[in-house]
Write a structure and sequence with these properties.
- Helices cover about 85% and strands about 0% of the residues.
- Helix 1 crosses helix 8.
- It is globular and about 55 Å long.
């Protein structure tokens, strides 16, 4: 039984870390401040739909684009791993929260910046493509769908979750996720280099 579920679990963890549903809650609350309940629901629906659509589209088109321009999966693992490491490092440094808040209020806040790049950004796209190559389409798609449901659940109950964790708690959780993301980035680089040298 565990053997069947193992690829789903292994695909779920890095996508969960990259999406960082809990870490996005303070940003979401700040962006929808003063917005009515009905409009807030619309923003959540728009953000999750956009994030899912971008990730799924990249899952299917990404590999085709790589073949077209001659990039191997090992090249992508190294580049993607370095990118994940740099992104996580930047988010760990002071001032990351303020730079993300600079997006401000727009009528399409659900699409940008919430849907992309906050929920589905470079980290999620890179991780999704790597898990697709490592574990296959079914585990990656199921893991992505579950993670997007977690995002929807977290955003619809954002204020309750904030009361439980507090602002400091959600930021601390986010920092732990970024450290894990950096470690996943290092692992991807290692696997990419091993793949190139084993040829």
């Amino acid at each position: 039984m565990f053997k069947i579920l193992e690829p789903y679990l292994l695909a779920f963890i890095p996508i969960f870390v990259a999406v960082d549903a809990i870490g996005n809650i303070p940003l979401f609350i700040s962006l929808v401040e003063g917005v009515g309940k009905k409009q807030r629901k619309r923003i959540v629906a728009e953000s999750v739909t956009t994030a899912t659509a971008v990730a799924v589209l990249f899952m299917f088109i990404g590999r085709w684009v790589f073949k077209l321009i001659g990039i191997t999966i090992y090249d992508f693992q190294i580049a993607g791993g370095l990118l994940l490491f740099i992104i996580s490092l930047r988010l760990l440094l002071p001032g990351a929260y303020k730079s993300l808040m600079a997006f401000g209020h727009t009528s399409d806040v659900g699409v940008f910046p919430l849907g992309t790049p906050l929920i589905t950004g470079p980290a999620v796209l890179t991780t999704t493509l790597i898990t697709l190559n490592s574990y296959g389409i079914a585990p990656t798609f199921v893991s992505l769908a579950i993670n997007m449901f977690i995002v929807w659940f977290a955003l619809t109950r954002a204020e309750r979750i904030m009361k439980v964790f507090g602002l400091g708690g959600t930021r601390a959780f986010s920092k732990i996720m970024y450290i894990l993301l950096a470690a996943i980035g290092v692992m991807m680089v290692r696997l990419g280099l091993m793949g190139i040298f084993s040829k």
